Amino acid sequence: MKKLLFIIGLFLIFSGYTFGQISFGIKGGVSSYDMEYKNLLSSSKISGEFKNSHYGVHAGIWARFGLLGLKIQPEIQFNSNNVNFEYTDLENPSNASQIINTSYRNLDFPVLAGIKISFLNIYAGPVGHYFLKDLSEFESGYDIKQEFKTFTYGYQLGGGITIKRLTFDLRYEGGISNDNGKLIYGNQEFILANSPSRLLFSLMLRI
C-alpha cells in the first residue's frame, strides 16, 4: 500500500508542478494477455497447465507535459484480464480434464517519455503493476491457493495517432519481474516465474 500511495503522490506532484503546460485525459481499451506457463502444476495427484487467455479491458487517466524536449506521460489505469488453466486429477484418470478460469485485476502505472512528429506520438518507459485481487475457481472448487507479488515491473513501448482531442494508441508491454507469485497445493509450491506480455489498444481523450 505504501508503494501505491507513493506512486499516486508522484503523479499528483508532477501534475501540480507543471500545471501551466500540462494536459489531462481519460482512456479505455482492450488488451491481449500472453502467458506461456508449462507444467504449471505437477505432482503425483494433479497436473495443471496454462490453456488460453481472453482479451482484457482497461480504463484510467493520464497527464502529459514537456520536459527537456520530451513529452512525459504518467498514467494510472485499472486493468483486468482472464485466463484459463487445464486441471487434471491424476488419481482419477477416468475423469475428464477441467477448465479453470482466473481473473487478474491490477492498477497499472506507466511513465512514458516520447516525441511527437506531426500527429504521431512515439514513446517508451517503465510500468508498475499493483496487484489488487484475483477471482479464481481454484479457490472455490480446488485445494489450490494462489499468492501474487504485490508489486511487479515491466516496460511499454508504442505509438499513437492523434486527431484533434482523440488519440488511437497501440503499445507492446513486456515483463521485467521474474517472480510474480506462486500456486500452493498441499505443502508444495509452484512458482509463477514467467512474466506475461501483452498488446494494448486504447482510445485516449484529452479533456
Task: Please give a handful of descriptors for the protein shown.
207 residues; eight-stranded antiparallel barrel; three-stranded antiparallel β-sheet; 13 strands; 10% helix
The count of β-strands is: 13
What structural class do you assign from the helix and strand content?
mainly beta
* 3D shape: elongated
Query: What's the helix-strand series?
Result: HEEEEEEEHEEEEEE
What report would you give on this structure?
This protein has about 210 residues and is mainly β. The protein is built from two helices and 13 strands, in the order αβββββββαββββββ. It has helices spanning about 1-15, 135-140; strands spanning about 25-30, 40, 45-55, 55-65, 70-90, 100-115, 120-135, 145-150, 150-165, 165-175, 180-185, 190, 200-205. The chain has an eight-stranded antiparallel barrel with strand order 1-4-5-6-7-9-10-13. The protein has a three-stranded antiparallel β-sheet with strand order 8-11-12, with no helix packed on it. The mean pLDDT is about 80.
Brief characterization of the structure:
The protein is mainly beta and about 210 residues long. The chain has helices at about 1-15, 135-140; strands spanning about 25-30, 40, 45-55, 55-65, 70-90, 100-115, 120-135, 145-150, 150-165, 165-175, 180-185, 190, 200-205.
